[in-house]
Amino acid sequence: MRKLRLVPLSQDRAALAYPLIQTVRPALDLESWEEYANSILNAGADGSGGIMTLQNPRGLIAGLFVYRIEDVPDHGRTLVAEDFVALDIIDSEVVAESLADALEQVAREHDCQAVHTSITCNGGPGSRRVVDMMRRMGHHVESFRMCKPLRATG
């Protein structure tokens, strides 16, 4: 099994995470991703959020998630994760499992009682595999998040 390290994303490496983000946010250009990543990193500088990456020994990013810490009425202190991306040419499932373990690790470091994870469903089979894997690891569907894009007015 390959050794993967959990490493917070730094602003100077945000562009290196862009190929992964593009798999779940294909309409996002590099400049917009860097602006978004920097806003997350700046807002989370107090420990309330950030972007975590899984990196191989050479520093290549194989997975990532964006997170923030919130107080949720049903669960109390909760790690809320979005943009859960595991991408690896050799074994994406190992990366996804390691990333799911990392969610729990980060949640425990922040004294959270629960983890909420949004998994982007872009129609590919990978989303379904991630949902199935998360269920095997003890996660369950608690709600659905829906989106309706709105046209610009004015």
Quick description:
36% of the residues lie in helices and 25% in strands.
Give an overview of the whole structure.
The chain contains four helices and five strands; from the N terminus they run E-H-H-E-E-E-H-E-H. With about 150 residues, the protein is of the alpha+beta class. The chain has a single domain, classed as 3-Layer(aba) Sandwich (Aminopeptidase), CATH 3.40.630.30. It has a five-stranded mixed β-sheet, with helices on both faces. A hairpin with a 5-residue loop joins strand 2 and strand 3. The longest helix is centred in the middle third of the chain and has 18 residues. The mean pLDDT is about 85. This is N-acetyltransferase domain-containing protein.
List the helices and strands and how they pair.
Blueprint: E1 5-8, H1 14-24, H2 30-43, E2 49-55, E3 61-72, E4 76-86, H3 92-109, E5 114-117, H4 125-136
Parallel strand pairs: 4-5
Antiparallel strand pairs: 1-2, 2-3, 3-4
Helix pairs in contact: 1-2, 3-4
Protein name: N-acetyltransferase domain-containing protein
Organism: Ferruginivarius sediminum
